[in-house]
Design goal:
The complex is a heterotrimer of chains A (about 425), B (about 375) and C (about 325). By secondary structure, chain A is α+β, with helices and mostly antiparallel strands. Chain A has helices at about 25-30, 35, 60-65, 70-80, 90-105, 130-145, 160-165, 180-185, 200-205, 210-215, 220-225, 230-240, 270-290, 320-335, 370-390, 425-435; strands spanning about 15-20, 40-45, 55, 85, 110-115, 115-120, 150-155, 175, 255-265, 290-300, 310-320, 345-355, 360. Chain A contains 16 helices and 13 strands. In chain A, helix 5 (about 90-105) runs antiparallel to helix 6 (about 130-145), helix 11 crosses helix 12 and helix 13 (about 270-290) packs across helix 14 (about 320-335). Chain C folds into three domains: about 5-160, 3-Layer(aba) Sandwich (Rossmann fold); about 170-205; about 205-325. In chain C, strands 2-3-4-1-5 form a five-stranded parallel β-sheet, with helices on both faces. Classes of the chains: A alpha+beta (about 425), B alpha+beta (about 375), C alpha/beta (about 325). Chains B and C meet through loops of B and helix 3 and helix 4 of C.
Chain lengths: ~425, ~375, ~325
């Protein structure tokens, strides 16, 4: 075996970031190449209605000017032969699992960020070759075995790896070293860096910091004064430093969540309630299936400009109850979202999960006797649904024709993301990819 | 205004009045205490618009002259400074004199202090309350009623009405109720009042009652309680204590108290308290304070708790009486300790109504107070 | 202080007085107007009028209630004036706590929130809750210079009281009537927005002097540039005027603008009427382009102050450039 040690740093780490290019479209192309290969195609929330929004689109479509977030109607104007595809999350999930499985061949330290991207820590993977060889092998295998394109960033930390995979698309491999940081990043605008949002960038702007180079040379005290603890993180990031570990999250059930991209922008509170009711129904059902209780409820809201916020609250007593979760989500929404402001995506995540068996619940004087009855009812309903399918029993108020209703429909689950651990950074990231190109 | 007064008497009264001063007020004049010298004595008033306290210092008591008024008048002086200053004055006597523009001279022995006063005209007026609806209660009993209920009020500001104690009066029976949804305390007492006075849903914030509690003496002084539409007034000897009433409807708790039980137990209060207190040492995990209690005829009461870090504990206590089914229940030990600490009896009666329904605790032969605790649902 | 003090706000005042006369107060008022309009003061006077012992539809400013309100000592008036850049939900929560206490039947409680546009989304949404379920006796007065940033749902639930922008002529006449000199008033109005801020500027002890010194400095520059530097040292940098160099740059710019007007034959437009003669004699010493350059130079120099350039340095550099061209 060749000695690859010299290609690995003596002290630091080697991290890969693997990003599947135009994932949904690529998957359809892989499934039916004769139909889609080399053609402009797009996946949208709602195909038949013609008023849906493009969730992602193929590279040929991008060349024609089609962009993520566009209305289908608009996209068809620019590109009349655009092939519209209905999402099939079962297949996406299958492919996603397969590509993650390939990564696991080269390291046990794989952090799945979303359905189409992951980090792999290959610091201890010398036996498989140099970092660049491993990256090439993974890319080739994903292409040969799955017929999917991906870009890979190779770097000493997650931040640079992430930035690296972003630089050459599709099918690129980019090595970013710390010494590359000045000439690659420093003349760029602050918002260029992964993790610096528009808000932070404009605040930096106001402080006279326009480029990443300026940020990298800023005074820590000055940044701390204006940004608190984030100041240090900003300074580090601009210098290409990031010591966050690659956390293996495959098995851990730290949260249960669902998000759904809406076919059109919703602003009516009734529509939003219905979406949350369906989300609450699904996440609480999964919670109960796993015999868990949650203490924290988090909602995710994205506006038409792809700006995303998450807000969460901790409950007084842990719960598994749909109604309780739904009401908490609505409280959060109403508190943090201006009335009538349009919404593009809604998500609901349950956190601080604990085993039901070992979690005592303080009963409430005013409804302890109802609590029992409700529970029996829920249990019965769950059983019926296990037996006859998700649509067997639907509470009024859950009916509608938006994708949240389809959550129950396994094949067509209208969610753009279908992972238990919803993390916002990767949404930002994956969407940014889509928008940029 | 000009008067001389016994320093310690003034200090005593200022300390009482200052209980109504809030650090958080945004209204400048309310950071002050209003001092008013009249021919019948000196009045001190303080308020945060929620609580208002007025104390009256008479010119003399049976034996001594307390104060001498040279000129009547009034002024508002900064409360914080005043409370500190009067406490630290060197001499037994103090002279207070208001000059132009409310400049106030305070002289005691060789000390002379000049304080910038404020215009007393701008001080809010005390609420005017129709004194027809008066009931009389002894201060030690009122104190007991507060003590036995106040610990059960909610601290969750989102349900404001539960942060108070609910007063009701019906046929001369005064009832205090407090609940935070997980436990409830109820105390009844017969009081003197005109027979036709009844009221309900008068909710007084727990914080305010706590201040009142500090002022009430242990001796049996007569306290007059007067209720108006938005204020409640407690007349205590020479102190007037006004509190705003919380707005909202207190939930109906009468039906919550179970009439029937499945198991009744009588046990020595002190023994039970000590056992639970020890068990609670190992029950701090995740703030649940959870302890488990099993009761059966042969083994008595057994209390246990466990902690994954520290280990477990098991205690057994003999009962004096038992009737009904076996019990197996878990509850928050803090709730039980709170009850046992205020409960004034040698023996307590505990009634269990089911593993997932309230535990009822009362003194053995007393129906005047009732405590409810909702258990934990486990597994 | 009565409503009369608000010159040119007749419409708003009539509206407010009518609701007082008819005893038909809304649960919420939204006072809006450009910066400089007396929104906050009018909110206070309106609150005084609600409580005034003397008048039903105005404030006397003399009675105990009016005085208490003026001094912030009225227990039933709460003013939320946030010093920070936003009004957070905690501050609105304080209001909520105050609302949890029961009011007696006749009692009124007024909450004044200035710069209501600074409310964060959670704050605005919880504010909305009060407006949706108005309690009797509770009156909110919100003020803002930025109507667009107020939630539409808050707007639609409040009585809108738009404050008029006073015409410059009305404002000028008012100030002149108050005894300020016309030339100073004209200059002050160019440098501020609204009658109050103009009056404040006129009442300072430095404004008139600053103007005189500025004119003298320009004149010196024409005569003897070296003497001008010394003059600047003595009169500005080493005096209390050094604190107002930013305003001085405004004055420079306005002064040069007058030259541009004169050069263009628009004599009626000029501000520095008192210097008209001298200006006419000197306007041809520079080309129009140069006058414009000088005006920009003054504005640029002022901008530099914002980037923490020392005022002395900025002034010296400015004088140097002025001579240099």
């Amino acid at each position: 075996m060749a000695d690859n040690s010299k290609f690995y740093p003596t002290k630091g780490r080697v991290i890969l970031h693997i990003d599947m290019n135009a994932f949904y479209c690529s998957v359809h192309e892989a499934e039916e190449p004769e139909k889609y290969k080399g053609k402009p195609s797009a996946v949208s929330g709602s195909v038949e209605k013609r008023k849906g929004i493009i969730v992602t689109c193929s590279y040929p479509a991008r060349k024609r000017g089609v962009k993520t977030g566009m209305h289908v109607i608009e996209a068809l104007k620019i590109c009349p032969d655009l092939m519209m595809i209905s999402p099939d999350f079962q297949i996406y999930k299958k492919y996603s699992q397969q590509f993650v499985a390939i990564c696991y061949n080269y390291s046990p330290l794989v952090q799945v960020m979303s359905i189409d991207e992951c980090f792999v820590d290959i610091t201890g993977s010398k036996q498989f070759g140099t970092p660049l060889q491993i990256a090439e092998t993974i890319q080739n295998r994903v292409r040969d075995e799955l017929s999917l394109p991906c870009s890979i960033g190779v770097a000493p930390n997650k931040l640079l790896a992430k930035m690296g995979s972003d630089m050459k698309k599709p099918n690129g491999i980019t090595v970013l070293r710390k010494r590359d940081v000045p000439h690659v990043f420093w003349d760029k605008h602050c918002a260029f860096l992964y993790g610096i949002g528009d808000k932070t960038a404009s605040k930096l702007e106001k402080l006279g910091i326009h480029t990443l180079g300026q940020l990298a040379h800023s005074d820590l005290d000055f940044l701390t004064k204006h940004f608190g603890v984030v100041g240090k993180a900003l300074l580090d990031a601009a210098n290409g430093l990031d010591d966050s570990p690659v956390v293996e999250e495959r098995q851990s059930n730290k949260s249960i969540g669902h998000a759904t991209t809406l076919p059109v922008n919703f602003s009516d509170i009734g529509d939003i309630k219905r979406v949350f009711l369906n989300l609450a129904d699904q996440v609480s059902r999964r919670l109960r299936k796993q015999q868990l209780l949650c203490s924290t409820v988090q909602i995710t809201i994205r506006d038409p400009d792809m700006k995303t916020i998450t807000r969460s609250t901790t409950l007084n007593t842990p719960t598994e109850d749909r109604k309780n979760i739904f009401e908490t989500a609505m409280d959060l929404f109403e508190k943090h979202w201006p009335e009538h402001k349009p919404v593009r995506l809604l998500g609901l995540t349950l956190q601080k999960l604990a085993e039901k068996k070992s979690t005592p619940i303080q009963l409430d004087l005013f409804d302890y006797d109802e609590q029992d009855g409700e529970e029996v009812l829920t249990e019965t309903m769950d059983k019926l649904r296990d037996k006859f399918g998700e649509n067997a029993i639907i509470t009024a108020g859950m009916l509608g024709d938006d994708p949240s209703v389809m959550l129950r429909d396994k094949k067509r689950r209208g969610t753009s993301l279908q992972k238990d651990d919803l993390s916002i950074e990767h949404w930002e990231a994956s969407n940014r990819d889509d928008v940029k190109e | 205004m000009k008067f001389t007064i016994n320093t310690s008497t003034l200090n005593h009264h200022i300390q009482h009045a200052a209980k109504a001063i809030s650090n958080r007020t945004t209204i400048p004049i309310l950071t002050g205490i209003k001092m008013e010298a009249t021919n019948v004595g000196i009045y001190l008033t303080a308020s945060d618009t929620n609580i208002s306290i007025q104390t009256h210092i008479p010119l003399e008591d049976e034996e001594h002259v307390i104060a001498e008024i040279t000129a009547t008048g009034s002024v508002v002086l900064p409360a914080k400074l005043l409370t500190e200053l009067i406490r630290k004055l060197p001499n037994k006597q103090v002279e207070v004199e208001v000059k132009d523009n409310f400049q106030t001279m305070i002289r005691s022995g060789q000390t002379e202090v000049e304080i910038n006063g404020l215009d007393p005209e701008e001080y809010p007026l005390l609420p005017s309350i129709n004194e027809n609806n008066t009931l009389v209660i002894s201060s030690d009993i009122l104190k007991l009623m507060i003590k036995e209920t106040i610990f059960s009020v909610s601290h969750d500001e989102s349900a404001a009405i539960l942060t108070g104690v609910m007063f009701s009066l019906d046929h001369g029976k005064l009832t205090f109720t407090a609940t935070d949804r997980h436990r409830l305390a109820l105390k009844e007492m017969h009081v003197e009042s005109a027979a036709d006075i009844t009221f309900k849903n008068i909710v007084v914030s727990g914080k305010n009652l706590n201040e009142l509690y500090k002022i009430l003496s242990e001796q049996s002084e007569a306290i007059h309680i007067i209720v108006s539409d938005n204020q409640i007034l407690f007349k205590i000897n020479n102190i007037l204590f006004y509190s705003r009433i919380l707005d909202g409807v207190y939930p109906d708790t009468t039906r919550i108290i179970p009439a029937q039980s499945k198991t009744d137990v009588i046990v020595n209060k002190q023994k039970l308290l000590q056992a639970i207190d020890r068990a609670s040492l190992l029950s701090r995990e995740q703030n649940t304070n959870i302890v488990k209690m099993t009761v059966d005829e042969n083994n008595g009461i057994s209390i246990s708790s466990s902690s994954s870090t520290f280990g477990k504990i098991n205690e057994e206590i003999k009962m004096d009486e038992f009737s009904g089914d076996e019990v197996n229940i878990s509850f928050n030990s803090k709730y039980m300790l709170d009850v046992l600490k205020v409960l004034d009896a040698e023996q307590v009666k505990i009634k269990f109504t089911g593993a997932m329904s309230p535990i009822l605790i009362t003194p053995e032969d007393d129906n005047e107070c009732v405590f409810l605790i909702l258990p934990y649902r486990t597994g | 202080m009565p409503f009369d003090q608000f010159i040119g706000q007749g419409n708003a005042i009539t509206m407010l007085r009518r609701s007082l006369q008819q005893d038909m107060l809304s649960h919420a008022y939204l006072f809006s107007g450009v910066p400089g309009t007396p929104k906050d003061d009018m909110a206070i006077v309106f609150a005084q009028a609600m409580f005034c012992l003397l008048h039903d539809d105005d404030a006397c400013g003399e009675c105990m209630e009016c005085k208490k309100i003026e001094h912030g000592n009225h227990a039933n008036i709460n003013i939320l004036k946030s010093d920070t850049s936003s009004i957070k939900i905690d501050e609105i929560r304080d209001i909520k706590q105050k609302l949890e206490l029961k009011l007696s039947e006749s009692e009124k409680k007024v909450f004044i929130i200035t710069d209501a546009d600074k409310m964060t989304t959670p704050a605005a949404n919880s504010m909305l809750k009060f407006l949706e379920e108005p309690a009797s006796g509770i009156i909110f007065i919100l003020t803002t210079s930025n109507m667009k940033s107020i939630l539409p749902t808050i707007r639609s639930r409040s009585q809108w009281v738009p404050l008029a922008v006073m015409s410059n002529i009305t404002v000028r006449d008012t100030l002149v009537k108050e005894g300020f000199s016309v030339v100073l008033v004209n200059t002050a109005l160019k440098m501020t927005a609204g009658i109050d801020s103009a009056r404040n500027l006129l009442q300072t002890n430095w404004f008139a002097e600053l103007r005189t010194v500025m004119i003298q400095l320009v004149k010196e520059c024409f005569k003897n540039p070296i003497a001008a530097s010394i003059y600047a040292q003595q009169k500005i940098i080493k005096s209390t005027l050094s604190e107002y160099i930013d305003s001085m740059f405004d004055l420079f710019a306005l002064f040069f603008k007058d030259f541009i007007y004169l050069g263009g034959g628009k004599e009626t437009h000029i501000l520095f009427e008192d210097e008209k003669q001298w200006m006419l004699e000197h306007v041809h010493k520079h080309t129009m382009e140069r006058w414009m350059e000088l005006m920009h130079l003054a504005l640029e120099s002022k901008k530099r102050l914002r980037y923490n350039v020392s005022p002395q340095l900025a002034l010296e550099k400015f004088l140097f450039n002025m001579k240099g061209g």
